[in-house]
Every structure is written in C-alpha cells, then in structure tokens.
Write a structure and sequence with these properties.
heterodimer; A: about 170 residues; GMP Synthetase, Chain A, domain 3; B: about 250 residues; Ferritin; about 0% strand; globular
Chain lengths: ~170, ~250
Amino acid sequence: MVNKVDHNLEKAIWEALEAVKDPEIPVISIVDMGLLNDVSISDQGEVTIAMTPTFTGCPAIDYMKADIIEKVGQLEEVKSVTVNIDFSNSWNTNRITKRGREQLKAFGLAPPPLHQGEIHMEMLENVACPYCDGQNTSLNTPFGPTLCRSIHYCHDCKEAFQQFKPV
Amino acid sequence: MNAIKDLILKMADDALIIGHRNSEWTGLGPTLEEDISFSSIAQDKLGHALQLYTILHEDHEEQNPDLLAFTRKAEDFRCCQYVEMPIGAYDFSLIRQFLFDHAEYNRYQMLSNSSNNRLAALSQKIKGEIKYHVLHADTWVIQLGNGTTESHDRLQKALTDSMPLALGIFEKSAFEAELIRNNIFEGEDALRERWLGSITPILQKAGLELPDISTIEPAYGGRKGQHTGHLKPLLDEMGEVLNTDPTASW
C-alpha cells in the first residue's frame, strides 16, 4: 500500500506510532501490542490506519485513536489521518512482540503464553511469577482490574501478581 | 427488518441487557472477586453490543449505537426475556450467567463460520472473550454444586426455575429458514442442541440435574418484542442520563 518514494515518511509514521501507548499499560506501544492491521499513505499524504482493539469493550479505544491522530498528524508531510477500527483481522495475544512481552514483564504483568487459538483453564493456572520467575503459582480469578488481566498468587515469593491473560 | 438485521439486533439487545443486569452486581458481589468478575463480564457484553449496533448503523442504515441503545421503546427490543429478569439472589444470577453464556459461546462459535463476513470476523473475536465468561460460570457452578447442601440445593432450584426462561433464548424468528438457507446462521434448533451438549457435562460434574426439557414450555415472546414488566424500568434507568438532555455533547 505504501508508495515507494514515501519510505522516509513511512518510517516517521511508525516512529510516531511507537509513541502511542495503551493508557492502561503505559509501558508498551500500540506497535508492540500488535494493534495495527494496516498503515497506508496516499500520494497526497493522507494516512489511513486500521487498528484492532485488544478487547471488544476496551474503554481505551477512543483515547488511543485520538492519540494516533494527534501524533501522526504532527508530521509535516501528513495531510490527514484517519483511524478505522477493524475486526476483519482481530487481535489476539500472540500478536504482542517479543519486546512487548519483555516490557509487560518489567511492568509486573506476566506476559500471556503463546497459544494455538483455544484457551484452556490450565493456561491460566500455570503462570510464571513476573517478580521471581517462580512456577509455584495459582490463579485467584480470571478477571482483574482491567479486562485484559487475571489475578494470580505466587507461593514462592508470596506476592499477588497479574497476568496479561491469553485471548 | 430483514434476516441479518433481525439476527444482529437480537444478539446486540441480549448483550446490552444482560450487560446492564450483570453490572448491577458492581459493589454488591458476594466476594470482591465475584464483584469484579460480574463487572468485567458486564463491560465485555457492552462492548459486544456496541460493535453489533455499529454493524447495524454502518451496514444497515440504522441509527447510531447510542440512540439504538438508549432511545428505543421496550417493544422495539428483541432480547429474550431471560436477560431482562432482575438479578435476584446470587444463585439466580450465576445460573443465568452459566446458561446464557454457554448459549452465547456456541452462537458466536457457529457465527464465526457465517457467510456474512463482517459478522463472522466479529464473532471470532467475541467468542474468545466469552470463553472467559464460560470458564467463570463453570468454575463456580461446579464448586457450589459440590459445596454445602444449601449451595447445592439453591443452585438446583435456580436451575429448575430458570429453565423456561433459558429455553426462551432459542425462540425462532420469522427469518429462521432464510438464515439457514443462506448459510448465515445454522439456526436456533442447532444452537439449542449444541448448548445442551455444553452444559450437560458441567451439570454432571456439579451434581445438578437438568430438568426434562421436553416437558417445559419455553418463555417465548422476547424476540417479537413481547417483554416482561421488568424491561421498561431497566431501560428507563439505563437511558436516564441521556434522556435528560438527548442533544448534550459529552
């Protein structure tokens, strides 16, 4: 979709998108979260971005949309920015990048395990503690302070922790 | 009204109304974890309703999602009567969450293969979220079914009392044959069979007895806009803020 003369602009747009974070997990960018389905740039500098939310009911969608429009719109060559919410290629936790997983762990959120499409209870019950890497943990509840988190307890370091739960 | 609009509207209305009911547990859950669980499930359901209303608005010339949710009259809603019932005691709400979400999970699983591409893609997404609702319900139904005599008996009574309403989920619309013929949806009979296949093993593990459904008269009417007296007060409360000044901007 990207015009070949626009390589520098394309690079600048992706850099701008790196600065857009999910407000509920402000350490990870929407790029590393894997929320972007497509970025296209017309010859006239009109940018169209297809974004797909983590959870259908994610309350941060409008916030992130506005943030994208602001940050990408600041680039000189960009004439307009349109963000479409797109479910045609929907998000799952396998789309979080390796760097994103490390950032989640550093934030104190156990990264979601890679999966084959089906979530099983066992995947929630056997989670390594993000603080001490202990394996002796148990699931307290699959619902946490935000839609994307479950709550666990580590019997090794005696700390409660959260997991970014697999979907 | 046409077949696809009717299908999406009833699913969206189910999600909106059960979402509102689940949210009534916020602050009242029997434990903190249950409070958060019902609240999170409510938030998911409202997200599902929003995306379904968005399809109606963008592809089928309906009003915007806010107006669809907050300004229609009770008789314009196509939700089943089960979702509009008050939350009652925790046993009733848990059994409803169990029976309704197993039906929803199977419905979205079937629709993820729909010939309607937009609905299929969204269903694939929603199915993954409802998986957690089903895991939640199964965990508690098995735990409380095998808990004390009181917890077992209360769940059994809630299950038996709820069955006419639960069977009302599968009320057919006038467009049933068309949906099946066009490979949009396999139909309510097929869904009910799958639902029975899902709930039966869990009820067995919970030591609960599924009533003989062949002898039960389902509570139909919701899909035709015939509702219990419980829907209107819910809609009045849900739309109270918007309707004080429908033109206000937020």
